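note to self: dont lose this again. the chain is below, predicted strucutre after it. 393 aa total, dont forget to put it in the shared folder this time
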Amino acid sequence: MSGILDRDAIGAFCRHTHVELGGAASGPLAELTFGAKDIYDVAGHRTGFGSPDWLATHEAANATAPIVQRVLAAGARMVGKTHTDELTYSLNGENAHYGTPVNINAPGRIPGGSSSGSAAAVAAALVDFALGSDTGGSVRAPASFCGIYGMRPTHGRIPLDGACPLAASFDTAGWFARDAALMERVGRVLLADAAAAPKPARLLLAQDAFALAGEAVTEALQPALERVSALLGRPQPVTVASEGLPQWFEVFRVLQGAEVWAQHGAWVTRVKPALGPGVRQRMQWAATVTARDAVPARQQREEIARRMNALLDGDAVLVLPTLPGIAPLRNTPPAASDEFRARALSLLCIAGLARLPQLSLPLAKLDGCPLGLSLIAARGNDTMLLALAKAIN
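---
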């Protein structure tokens, strides 16, 4: 073992699936380094997916994932694969088999998952940027916890061929960087979009999201909100979910559970993997979600998507807290961890249900720890968010 593994003192990179890849001699990302979440295939190598049992029951990949190929072709160099939560089914970053990467910007606290290694590596400046994935919040949450930029793109804009799936109608690629300018550079490559970014027309403030996050978070985010308002004008308060964001979370939870079991139930039943705490309970619950359960949830999702499309029509930007708090302490008891997860996903599910792009910006702190402010735009307005972040920066 050499290279990044010798320098990785925070446990961000995988020893068991290590691979390095050189990039093109020139390009928009030339001379930059990146890590790739261990869900992305590299030809000739096995993909770990955060699970020793998955690793043991799957063969080496025949092809490299297009998302990895894109950044390599743009000149970036892959230094290794980064840790993920088991089967990506967690927001914590505490992998029972491979450990918890260190969150250097919030000592003693979780880095967030499931893109834990990618976020931790970027925060610790082990790489210039890193690739993750986001189903329920697995880029946005660790970005907020670790004090870096993190992007969930419009669902379907970046190909996920050669990536281990969790819940396909929610799965997206994603990426992290420490500064907004590099976020945009990487985004232009991943999105294959060189067109001029649209200009935001108006700013909307998700008052129910701020209310759910609570007074301390709202107060901590106020200076960051003022920076956004200085560019876009005074925000118009709106209520995102008239029936309550926790109800939206239930819609997400049912649909995700149904898709997770449809995708992995046969493998779980056959292999009986030794799943870690949290992941095991969620997988057991997913097995109980029936196709009948998913029908009304699917209908509710489409209504949510229609409402969000109408709200964001005309190049509007919605501002909200990324999460309802800072990174929880490592080894938080399950009951407290589950309560925070439910509140977090009540915020994170907005973009997922409506298939929208969301960017978390590291513009605040609370109790000395990072706290993200998020921007959501209409489908396809990914570059608008990236350009706006750079202007705010």
